[in-house]
Design brief:
This protein is mainly beta. Helices cover 0% and strands 67% of the residues.
């Protein structure tokens, strides 16, 4: 997590997620806008089929990461994330 003199903030971390979604708080809140949030799987306990994930309910201090898929059973997942904004 870092905040530059220009106001740019970069947050990153590991989000523990379940199928119905989990809300995660940024270590440093953004002041004005979030430009982008990206996530990628770090550890997934799933069976049968594929999964995908998306973010929703983004605020300047938190976001919700949701898992979805086709013919899947997700016990739990850890996602790496990075977010950019000011």
């Amino acid at each position: 997590m870092v905040k530059f003199n220009s106001g740019l903030i970069i947050n990153w971390g590991i989000a523990n997620t379940s199928g119905d979604g989990s809300t995660h708080t940024f270590p440093i809140s953004f002041s004005n806008i979030i430009y982008n949030i990206q996530s990628s799987p770090r550890e997934t306990n799933q069976q049968n089929g594929s999964i995908y994930w998306y973010t929703e309910e983004e605020t300047l201090s938190s976001f919700k990461l949701v898992l979805c898929g086709n013919n899947w059973v997700v016990i739990g997942s850890k996602q790496n994330y990075i977010a950019l904004g000011v």
